[in-house]
Amino acid sequence: MRTAPTLLPTIGSMSVSIIYYSDFSITTVMRIWGTHLLLTARKCHPLSIRCIRTIEAFSNSLVKKIDMVPYGPPQIAYFGENDKKGYTLVQLIQTSNITAHFVEAYDEIHLDVFSCKDFNPSTVESEVRRHFYAEEITSQLIKR
Q1: What's the pTM?
Q2: Domain ranges in the chain?
């Protein structure tokens, strides 16, 4: 009989869960290293996702709002073909990275924020709405 994972108290900056499988007598210890937010924004304002200045302002604002420390300026490049073309953003932060692809063909943003420092996913969503006027946002939060 397998039991559900048990979340133990935080140890330092990492949570630890132990999974015990009594039928195999196996114990697994899993340390939580960080939080990974995967966010898709649809029906964004077309001009906003095509403007390098807006994307740069978004990156700079997001880093500040979620209390991260940038490691250099944001890297923003335009490339791709057909329905895959658009800007891509890479912002290194001292605790990991922020990446996004702005899909012109569908007026969408596919954004990832990963950090071993905690952040508020709602703040990320608010910044996406504020800069790109997204009408629909879906997201998934993963602890890994």
Answers
A1: 0.79
A2: 1-32, 35-143
The domain 35-143: what is its CATH number? 3.60.90.10
| Structure-derived torsion over alpha carbons of residues 104, 105, 108, 112, reported in degrees to the nearest 10 | -70
d(CA 93, CA 70): 4
Please enumerate in sequence order all residues whose Cβ is within 8 A of that of 36, keeping only pairs 6 or more positions apart, or say none.
Answer: 112, 113, 114, 141, 142, 143, 144
Closest CA to 116 of 15, 39, 19, 5: 15
Pairwise CA distance, residues 110 & 6, whole Å? 32
pLDDT tens-digit profile of 19-63? 444 455 555 667 889 999 999 999 999 999 999 999 999 999 999
For residues 120 and 45, what is the distance between their CA atoms, to the nearest angstrom? 24
Structure-token pair, residue 95 = 């605790």
